[in-house]
Amino acid sequence: MAEPGVETRTRSSVITARAAATFDPVGRSVATARAFVRDTLHGWGYADVVDDAVVLTSELVTNAIIHAGTSADVLCLRTEDSVRIEVGDRYPEREVPLQATGHSFAGLDSENGRGLLLCSALASRWGVEYTPTHKQVWFQLDLPQRPVGTRSASPALPTALLPVADERVRVAVAQIDAAGAIAVWNPDAEIVFGYAAEQVIGKPLADLAAWPHTPGIGTGLAEALQLSRWEGSYGIRGADGRVIPVYASHLRVRDSQGEPSTVCLLVRDTERAVLQTPQRAPVTESRTEHNAADPFEVFIGSPAPDDLDGLLQRTVERARDMLDGDAAFLLLATDDETELEVRATTGLPSARQRFARVPVEAGSGRYSSARMPAVHEDLASVPGSVPLLGSTGMRSVVTVPLKVEGRLTGSLGVAAEAPGRYSNEEALRLQFAADRIALAVESARLGELERLRRGSLSFLVEASDLLAGTLDRDQTLALMAQMTVPTLATWCAVYTIADQASDPYLSYVLHEDEERIDGLKALLSKIAPPDPVPTPGARIWTAPGQAAQRAALLASQRELGWGTASPVSAGIGTTLATAAAVGGETVVLPLVARNRVIGMLTLGKPSDDHFRQEILELAEDLSRRAALALDNARLYSERVAISQSLQRSLLPPEMPEIPGVEVEVFYRAAGEGNEVGGDFYDVFPIRDGAYGFAIGDVCGTGPEAAAVTGLARHALRLLAREGFGGPAVLERLNAAILDEGSRSRFLTLLYGELRPQSDGSALLKVVCAGHPLPLRLRQDGTVEPAADPQPLLGVMDDLELYEQMVTLDPGDVLLCVTDGVTERREGTRMLGDDGLAEVLAGCTGLTAGAVASRVLRAVEHFAAEPASDDMAILTLRVPEPQVS
C-alpha cells in the first residue's frame, strides 16, 4: 500500500533532456556528484531548484558510496515543468523510513536515513524502486509557477509612511553601447549629474561611475553591464566633482539589427523606492499535506540568492520571521574556528556590527560555546553572555551552530525584546533550518574566498608592477594611497620616518571623496602619530576616531552657543563630515624594509564600519611590498642627490668673461640618475690675459671615474697657473693618473691656452691627447681639424707631447666635443667626424651659443633613442668687428 509522498513511478511527462554519470565508491565522488547535478541543472536553466537538488543528491550519493559502499549511478531527467533525479546503488536491502506511520524517522544527528528524510521534506514527489541487484531512490522537484501580470504589489499605506522624495522625482536614463560607452543621456540625467549630453556621449560609463569594489568579491561595473538584468547602488561623479549616490536598474536589450546595449535607469539613492524591486514573497506551492507545514519551504524561498551576502541576509530575515523574532544574526567561523565574524544581521545596527568578531568559546559551560545550540531566556540575568546583543535591548535569544561534515562553519541566532520567548522547541526548529542552509552557506563562502584569493593575487601582482615602475618617492606614496582607496579602505594616511631619530611625519592623505581630504589631513595633523611598532600585522588605532568625536562635539556645542560668545560656528559641516569619515575602524600597518620601520600605513572606515580579516591580510601583503618600494625610492633619491651634487662639483662653477672671444658650453649627462664621472670641461684664467680651456672624457663612470675627473680638472688649473706649458701640464697629469694604480682610468683630453690679440684675432696653443680633434670653421664655410692626434693619458709612462699653434680670425669658430657627440648612433649609422663637420659647415655667421645649440640639436635628432653617453660641447668664436 502506497504511503503519502512515496511513489514508485512519476507522473507522465515528456522528457526533454537527460544526463547520466556513474561515481566510484570513494569520498571525493560526493563532491563530484554535487558538481555534476549543479552544472547540469544550471545548463538547463533550472536555477530555481538547484540548491534543493544538490542537497538531496549529496545525501543520496553519500548513502550509496559511504554507507552502502557501492558505486552510485546518477540520472537527471528534464521535463517542461519539473526535474527528476535518480540515484541508484548495488545494495538493495535498505530500510525506508515513512511519515504518518508509527515508524519514526532517524534523529537529526543520525546519518542513517537522513537522505530519505530530506526527500520527504524537500521533494514534490519521491520514491524507491528495488530490483534483485539494485536499489534506486528518485525524487522530483517541480519548477515554481511564474505568475502572469502583476509581478509584485504592496498594500496601500498611509501618506505618512510613503517613501520621501524630492518635489519632482527625476529618473536619469543612460543607454550604454556594447563597448561600454554612453550612447543616450536624457534631460533628467543632465539635471541630476550636471553634464550636458554632448559632454558624456561617447565616453565610457566607467569614467563617471564610482563603483564599490573589493578584489575578487562582487560584480564589477563591466560585468554588471553584461548581465541581462542588474539592480543595486553605486555612485556617479557629478560635474562638480562630488560623488552622487544613486540606485540603478540595468536591463540588457538588443536592437532590430541584433546589436546589444544596456539601458540604465538611475535615481538618487534616497529615492530608491522608485526603482527598487520589492523582495519576492516566499514561494508557496501546492504540496501534499505532510509537506505544507515544512519550514524548509518558507525558509529561503525561490530562487535562492546566488551571492553570499544575499544568501546570508535572506537567511537572517527568514530565521527572524520563522520564530517571530525582533532581530536575527548570522556569523561565519574563521578558518581556525576560534572566532566568528558578523556577516549579516536584521533588526540590529548592522553597520556597527558588520565584520566584528566574537570568540567561539566565550567561557566555560554549555551556553558559552557557539558549537552547541543555546537558549537564553533572559539576557539581563547573564549580562555579556552574548556580546553581539549588548546595548541592543534584546532580552531572549536562541542560537544554533551551522555545521558541515562535523566542522563548525557559523552560528545563526534569533533574538526578541521580551524575555522567555524561546524554548528548546524553537531551538530544534532553528537547528533544522540551520542544517538545511549550512551546505549552501559553506559553498557560497568557499566560492567567495576563492574569488577573493584570485582577486587578491591579481591585485598584488598589479600593485607590485606599479610600485616597481617608479623610483620617485612622492609618486610611490601616491600609488600606495591610490591602491588602497577605495579598494581596501575608505581613507588612508601614510606616515614616513626619515631615520631612527626622527618622529613619524604625515606624508600623504587620501579619501575616496576628495572633499574630505583637507578635513582629514587637518584632523590627523593635530593628533600624535601612531607608534612605529615593527610587529607585523594590523593593529587598531583609536586616536583618530576619538579626536573626530571630540571635534564634532565641540563644533556642535559652538553651533548651539554653549560656552562661547558666537552662536554660529563656521565649518561645522566639514567637522561633522570628517567625524563620520573616520568614525569606523582604523588600523595601522607598519612599513618595514631592511629590518627598519620606515613608516606606517593607516587605513580607515567610515562610521561604525569594520574591516574584514581577508582585507587586512591583503593590506598586510601590500604594505610589505609598498615598504620595500618606498625604501628603494628613498635610496635612489639619496643616490641621485649625491650623484648630482658630485657632478656639479666636478664642473666649473661659472664661465669667465674672455675679452674679444665668445664662449659657450653645453653639457648633457646620460642616464636617469645622471651618473657621475664621464665627460668634463673647464675654462679658466691663467695669467697676463691668457686663459686655459679643456674638454675631456674619462673611461667609465661611477666613483672611480669621478676621482680621475676631479684629479684632472684641479691638476690642470694648478699646473697651468704654475707656469707650465701645455705638454708639461698633460705629462704631469699623466704621471698623477698612473700613480693611482688600480684606481687609474685612461683619459682623453683636449687642452689649450687662448690669448686674445690686439688685431681682433685669438692665438691658441692646443694639445690633443687621444681626444676627438677640434674643428675650425672659417668665414668661407670651410671646416678643418685644428690639431693632430696624440697619445691619450693614463696608459704609458713616457709621453712626448707637443702643442700646435692655431689662430682664430674674426668670424672663425673652434668646436670641441667629446665622443658622445661623434659616436651618436642610429642602428649601424654613426654621426662620426664627417657628420659633425657637415653640421658645423652650416653654422657660418652664427654666434658661439647658436653653433653649440645647432650641434646639440643635430646630435639629438640623429637617433630616436635617448643618448646613452655623456656629451660635452665647447665652442669658441672670435666675433667680427662691429661696422659703425
From TrEMBL:
<dbReference type="Pfam" id="PF13581">
    <property type="entry name" value="HATPase_c_2"/>
</dbReference>
<dbReference type="InterPro" id="IPR036457">
    <property type="entry name" value="PPM-type-like_dom_sf"/>
</dbReference>
<feature type="domain" description="PAS">
    <location>
        <begin position="167"/>
        <end position="203"/>
    </location>
</feature>
<dbReference type="Pfam" id="PF13185">
    <property type="entry name" value="GAF_2"/>
</dbReference>
<dbReference type="InterPro" id="IPR035965">
    <property type="entry name" value="PAS-like_dom_sf"/>
</dbReference>
<keyword id="KW-0378">Hydrolase</keyword>
<dbReference type="InterPro" id="IPR003018">
    <property type="entry name" value="GAF"/>
</dbReference>
<dbReference type="InterPro" id="IPR013767">
    <property type="entry name" value="PAS_fold"/>
</dbReference>
<protein>
    <submittedName>
        <fullName>GAF domain-containing protein</fullName>
    </submittedName>
</protein>
<dbReference type="InterPro" id="IPR052016">
    <property type="entry name" value="Bact_Sigma-Reg"/>
</dbReference>
<dbReference type="InterPro" id="IPR029016">
    <property type="entry name" value="GAF-like_dom_sf"/>
</dbReference>
<dbReference type="Pfam" id="PF13492">
    <property type="entry name" value="GAF_3"/>
</dbReference>
<dbReference type="InterPro" id="IPR001932">
    <property type="entry name" value="PPM-type_phosphatase-like_dom"/>
</dbReference>
<dbReference type="InterPro" id="IPR000014">
    <property type="entry name" value="PAS"/>
</dbReference>
<dbReference type="InterPro" id="IPR003594">
    <property type="entry name" value="HATPase_dom"/>
</dbReference>
<dbReference type="Pfam" id="PF00989">
    <property type="entry name" value="PAS"/>
</dbReference>
<dbReference type="InterPro" id="IPR036890">
    <property type="entry name" value="HATPase_C_sf"/>
</dbReference>
<dbReference type="Pfam" id="PF07228">
    <property type="entry name" value="SpoIIE"/>
</dbReference>
